[in-house]
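Cross-check.
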Amino acid sequence: MIVGYDWHDEETLERDFQYIMSLRPAFSQFMLYTPCPQTPLHERLRAEGRLVDIPYQFRDGYHLTFKHPPFHG
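Predicted model, tokenized:
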């Protein structure tokens, strides 16, 4: 499951999570939506001033690399 789409807030994230759990998976993986350099998402977030300056080794799907208004203030 990808966490951190623009439409995710506490309610929609919970709904998506409950849907995944309703499928009764034997294994689940949850990763943060991560804008990779030179992609349209990265360019859009850069233009919006939403990228967070973190070391390269933390741009891995486990660390939030951009400001997400419902979760980042």
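The chain has a mean pLDDT of 92. The two ends are 23 Å apart (CA to CA). Passed to J.P. for a second look.
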